[in-house]
Amino acid sequence: MDALVCIRNAVTHNDGDLSKNRDKKSASIVTAANLPGVTLDGTVVKLDAPFLDFVRVGTLAVRNYHGEF
Q1: Which residues are 45's β-sheet partners?
Q2: I need a surface site. Which of 2, 8, 65, 67 has the fewest CB within 10 A?
């Protein structure tokens, strides 16, 4: 989930550049997470279709864990 926060912040606020996030460990967090559909070009995040499926399933899992279904 930390990697998703880093990606969201980079895409929303910093033109996809993880190095511009407040958390200076963002690039290493995203790299370590090895999420499907996420690649880095230097510190710039590139997202492909498998990423959206991963986010959808992850969101459903968290909501299920918290009893929202």
Answers
A1: 40
A2: 67
Report d(CA 38, CA 67) in Å as an integer: 29
| Apex 52 CA angle, 14 and 6, nearest 5 | 30
Q: How high is the pLDDT of residue 68?
A: 81
- Alpha-carbon separation of residue 53 from 9, 19, 33, 49, 56 (angstroms): 19, 25, 16, 7, 5
pTM, full prediction: 0.85
Domain boundaries, the chain: 2-65
Length of the chain: 69
What is the C-alpha to C-alpha distance for residues 48 and 67, in angstroms, rounded to an integer? 30
